[in-house]
# Entry
Amino acid sequence: MFDTHELGRRPGALKRLSRSIPAPADLGIEVIGVAEGATVELDLRLESVMEGVLVTGTARAPLTGECVRCLEPLERELEADFQEMYSYPDADSRNRPVAEPAEDEDEEDTLFLEGDLFDLEPVLRDAVVLSLPLQPVCREDCPGLCPECGARLADDPDHHHDVHDIRWAALQGLAVSDQDGEMDNAPRSAGDDSQEK
# Structure
């Protein structure tokens, strides 16, 4: 929770602050994210406006995960920008237009100040998750794993197997018998005309 008491409700009032916070649980996706308790550096700009407090900020945090191609651990630095409006819970409703049915859904997404406090966690979570790579890789040209044995191909670029796919074995047999048939039906030499007479 962050306090906006010093900001007051005078539109145009501005406050900047920097803070380090521990990362909440589940701040990421399956293959990459910010470890719970890791330090998240926040630079915030709080601005008082007519409807509430506009919060603009940047979050920096260390990412840990694994490459989706070769499953090696990887570490990155994340920087995510965000901006969110926190409305005053007791704002004068006379200044608001009558809500249409579709606008009621938008109102459910509206974040409100709780007294002078606001909770940044849902905004931070959205900003971080949307900034994450969906398919993180250790390097852009990562060759991944061998589909036969699971060996990491980056460690051995010349890695290969002489194993044939058993699903093609029947066709392989046809190819061999077809080659034998071609040899049986090989064209005869011009001097061999015994069959023609």
The two ends are 105 Å apart (CA to CA). Residues 60 and 79 are 5 Å apart (CA to CA).
